[in-house]
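Board notes (copied after class):
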Amino acid sequence: MKIRNHFQEAIAIAALTWGMASVAMSGCAGTQKDGMLDYARSAELQFQEGMDEFEDEDCVSAEKIFGQVRRKFPYSRYAVLAELRLADCQFIQGSHATAAVSYQQFVKAHPTHEDAPYAAYKRGVSYYEMIPGDYFITPPPHERDQAATRDARASLDAFIKRYPNSEYVEPATELLKKAVRALVRHEIYVAEFYLSRGDRRAAAVRLEGVQKDFPESGLVPDAMFLQAITFLEMGQKDKAVKVFEEIRALYPEHYQSRRAGDYVRHLEGEQGDSRRGSNG
């Protein structure tokens, strides 16, 4: 009888212990859940505080708050959003080189994020904003360093190819055209510089590169026409005629096509006169 009583007591104690443990575990889970909700809610509230400053165009205050969100809530979705808004603040404040790097880091760290296309686009725009502009006391843009222009072209082109369905493709395409045009103008400027120094061979090579590297540019027929004229000045009529004919075939509606046709007819007339003279 005593053995049975001890056994029953043991079962009762075990049941009581399990019940207490279950209550404790339930309370712990509830506390963790509440803590996670508080964490997310606090992150959201502080991020929204930063957005209020951002929308009021106070990037100085917004940057401080977004920085705090990243430090205090690194595992929340708002830390990622704060990272992107910090890049936007850099862009707005004119720190385009820094912004370009920040946008690139965002895409690299969060390639599947819904805002990755936006960041990739803004990276290209950041470089575009660094392209030399027109100033009265400085040389024309095409005479200055084109590093930013090349970066803009590469970034915008990469964005369009990677995100062809993005809402930013259209504005990116327009900026890309302008960047390419600036690069072609620079190449033509360099070629004309060589011509001014009498280095026609270097000019011809530079102009040939325009057609090869920037086939989408509307300035290609101009570069090709100048290349053909350079070949004529070098005494290489066959090469000149070949380029003239390419202009007529590839760009029949361009005004340089008509000029190229005039030159070809003139050169063919010279050749005919030369043959008649040799026979006469």
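Comment from the instructor: The chain has three domains: 29-87, 94-197, 199-272. Confidence is low (pLDDT under 50) at residues 10-30, 134-142.
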